[in-house]
Amino acid sequence: MKALIEGARSIGLTLSPKEIEAFRIYQRELAEWNARFNLTAIHGEDQVQIRHFLDSLSCLLAMGLDKDVSAVPHGDVGKRIPKSVRALNLKAIDIGSGPGFPGIPLKIVCPHLKLTLLEATAKKVTFLQHIVALLGLKDVQVIHDRAEVVGHHPEHREQYDLALARAVAELPVLAEYALPLCCLGGRVIAQKGHDVQLEVMNAQRAIQLLGGVLRYLLDVELPGLAEPRSLVVINKVARTPEMYPRRPGIPKKKPL
């Protein structure tokens, strides 16, 4: 697990032997299941460790920031994970989790996280249930459904401190999936490519309409990953109007 261990260390995260073993099991199971069910297009141990595990852990750079970014030394913003982040006791939902990214890697290193994995594809849901049980992860639920549906369920609507999403949709669409699930004072962390400014600009109307405000854009550079990444952080500052999210398929077909 050298690529993961060294990559995590470069952003201020030292993995324990127990965590390394959990990632080793996760990598093994992902490879075995992927051979049968095509869960991910990324293959090879180093690629999985960097493009899936380490990339997922980069969300901690935004999770550990104060709500007022001015309280963080400028040179450290988005560069190093604060030690206190491991103790975060948040209720989080991973939207379109796929085979568990970024939710499961974050749960491995933040054991107090109360995590919901939301996925619409049955074979990926089956894998999520398998890996959660195999790793013995507590306070994790797997839901087989769509964000447009779950966003109207009282037990999920505006109930989460944190909504996570990686490679799910363009930001105007993603905002409609995620902001209805965030509580007031919560935040959305969207993992995006480096050239995200136009996408953010096009999403401003949707973000405001759904009760959010853009808070940070953090550039992320990971060892072994040629192309830089961005974390888009949106704070929930007002309640989402009851009509959102619209019915399944409409947010993507007719973005706000």
In summary, what is this structure?
38% of the residues lie in helices and 20% in strands. It has helices at residues 2-10, 17-37, 45-57, 60-63, 103-109, 122-135, 147-150, 171-178, 197-209, 250-253, and strands spanning 91-95, 114-119, 140-144, 160-166, 182-193, 212-220, 229-236. The protein has a seven-stranded mixed sheet, with helices on both faces.
Mean pLDDT: 91
User: How would you classify the helix and strand content by structural class?
Assistant: alpha/beta
Main sheet overview: 7 strands, mixed
- Roughly how much helix do the residues carry, as a percent range? 25-40%
Strand order of the largest sheet: 3-2-1-4-5-7-6
Features:
single chain; 256 residues; alpha/beta; seven-stranded mixed β-sheet; 10 helices; 7 strands
Can you give a write-up of this model?
This protein has 256 residues and is an alpha/beta fold. The chain has 10 helices and 7 strands. The chain has helices at 2-10, 17-37, 45-57, 60-63, 103-109, 122-135, 147-150, 171-178, 197-209, 250-253; strands spanning 91-95, 114-119, 140-144, 160-166, 182-193, 212-220, 229-236. Strands 3-2-1-4-5-7-6 form a 7-stranded mixed β-sheet, sandwiched between helices. The radius of gyration is 17 Å and the shape is globular. Residues 68-77 have low confidence and may be disordered.
